[in-house]
Amino acid sequence: METKPERIIIFDTTLRDGEQCPGATLNIDEKLAIAKQLARLGVDIIEAGFAFASPGDFTAVNRIAQTVGTEDGPVICSLARARYDDIRAAAEAIKPAAKGRIHTFIATSDIHLKYKLRKTRSEVLAIASEMVAYAKNFTDDVEFSPEDAGRSDPEFLYQVLERAIAAGATTVNIPDTVGYTTPSEFGAIIKGIKENVPNIDQAIISVHGHNDLGLAVANFLEAVKNGARQLECTINGIGERAGNAALEELVMGLHVRRQYFNPFLGRPADSELPLTNIDTKQIYKSSRLVSNLTGMLVQPNKAIVGTNAFAHESGIHQDGVLKNKLTYEIMDAQLIGLTDNQIVLGKHSGRNAFRSRLQELGFELTETELNKAFIRFKELGDKKKEITDWDLEAIVNDEIQQAPDLFKLELVQVFCGSSAKATATVSLRTPEGEELTDAAIGTGPVDAVYKAINRVVNVPNELVEFSVQSVTAGIDAIGEVTIRLRHEDRIFSGHSANTDIIAASAQAYVNALNRLYAKLQNKQQEQVTA
Ligand code: KIV
Ligand code: ZN
User: How far is CA 399 from CA 146, 281, 292, 402, 512, in A?
Assistant: First the structure.
């Protein structure tokens, strides 16, 4: 990667920092599906995980490196603490990628040094340069982060960065780990680094920040004005605590206001050259995929990708938009891939039409995935006359979601109404192949279904979130159900889509329970082998 890029580099950490938020845990196939979509979106670097953290993380980084890390694909990166064994694991995991990066970090704020690391500043200086030099043995592309840079003493920060660059770091990333800084302060930190780190021209300045005060995106844009050229962000802004800076907000901010930002990158204000490599038309699809697979819902008023982001409710606004869109719209919804939701297929459409529309929408399915999705499509065609792009997307995302297939939902049947007690009967096939049926009464049909499922699966859990959203308008719309449940302080999510929302609710619950059940099984296995 050139050290003076004339555009902004997008480093996506959805699969590492994003996946760190409660309940967002993804399995390997889901991570791969997201990584492929990130490549289509055009991100420059995918931080695919933290290889040393667990064998599952290692495998995920390794598979993404093999599959998505092609010559013309993104750089594949693994996080590593500034420790020999972490760096070795990261190096091994990214090996299959045509372009691989090791991202190593150590904290530099006095609070972290005193209470977390129990190390002196000179010890941290030595470790930073030793570990960057060690990582350099495996790849030329080494990124170094002084964790909690936002609260670090600037003079010490300059020294650490100088040592890291001297040891071979090609990117130095400045994290506002706790989301504490304000835009002008963060901009000043970047300016200070540019002015006081003697060898800074040998590295790219990157920024990483959390959204605890809702300032991450604003901080990054200020950083760009002061010389940052790599932005670390996540789809929908998911991540640790209040999340990370949202990719879609940064990219669209830079795009819509490019005349404002161009001069900070040494371009004429009216330059039409894109400021990032992102294919903005893939933004909406990426957002939906990440939301469906992680179970992290997007708030309706979320900038760029919220369902209300392009909706005009007030009469005055609607009138203005009808006369001229520019009155109340600063960007076209089509720019982020929100199509006019065309009606494309129907009950009689064949396999080829189905396959080619999916290809046009950017979905690459294996033959088995295509077969499964086609069956779902035909079933939907029997219930719904007109099938839109959004329906297709819901079907495919549902097929990609691969909760472990332990308990299989065979039947769900409810009896309810204004003067009836909601009663549900469910049949589930157990992981051992036995079919078990049970019934329960609940406060409503979904409650009854969940109680009946619990009687069969028998793993204590607390439902913490249940949401239904319709994919399109109309009484025959597909309903998407997302649920999150808690078991001993861990959150497990499940998602499903169906025109029958009771069936979708049951399947989403079984998906979440399967994730929980798989976790318990792994734990048991680890105890046996320990
Ligand atoms: O927030 C943070 O400081 C991080 C580092 C590991 C870059 O995620
Ligand atoms: Zn972070």
Answer: 40, 22, 11, 7, 15
